[in-house]
Amino acid sequence: MPVDITIGMCAYNEADNIERSIRSVYEQKTDFKIKNVIVVSSGSMDGTDDIVRDLMQTFPSLRLIRQETRMGKNSAMNLILENNRSEIITIINADTVLLDENAIANLIAPFDDDSVGIVGGRPIPVNDRNTLAGFASNMMWVMHHHISLITPKIGELIAFRDIGVRLPMDSQSDEDILKMALMKNGYKAAYAPGARISIKGPETVDDFMKQRVRVNIGQIYMTKNHQFMQPAWHKRFLIPAIFNTVWDLGFHPIMISHSILLELRARSAAKKHVAEQKKDIHTWDPVGSTKRL
What we know:
Mean pLDDT: 88
Strand content: 15-25%
Shape: globular
Distance between the termini: 32 Å
Largest sheet: 8 strands, mixed
Order of helices and strands: EHEHEHEEHEHEHEHHH
Strand order of the largest sheet: 3-2-1-4-7-6-8-5
Helix content: 40-55%
Number of helices: 9
């Protein structure tokens, strides 16, 4: 078990969420030390920075690094990496909240195995399953869970060994790049389903499509540029995940069919974007409905 860890948060205009996110970190029960919590605020203009500064009076290990202009998550991640002094780094998005007091302990536990280099937690959407977009978000993350039980799919809540990796500024695929670099250095990835974090998926179909098209663009570029396998694109992982997801969510043929069609449309649009030799999207236009956790 590592002696201490650093927790990093990337934030852009997260005044509605960041206090809950930070407090959920300091409510964690661990038998190791959370050395620092570093918030990188990238061009925030909604009071995010003031909230963090106020919380710094309560939590002395909390630190704010401000970027005057928004340069994308990879830029913010590189600042966290450059200011890290711990063996293990955990990354939490500022619009998410750790679901219980053991989330970080569960996330870090796999590092007892020296061969583990990166660990992913389990995102849990708070969206209403009775709406089309809400069901699609829940279905997607339940499928990710079942895929990760077979082959770890890293995202949303991660921890990794700091081996000096820096992220390219022209890419959005931060977690995949970290996973690829660590695996090339002989480490393996692990999944910690007990490390649960609440997230907000898109509330409208338009927002769902907007988000999924961009995510799929990043995944296609990872495959194209790095020959890096994307588990969610392989039938041998997808087919059992679909069956297990239906078991978990119940049989809702209309909702399930519609959710699958949305994802297929998103993948088609992403393939068209890449085929037209358009660039990866490293700085996202925020999906507004995902910011009301």
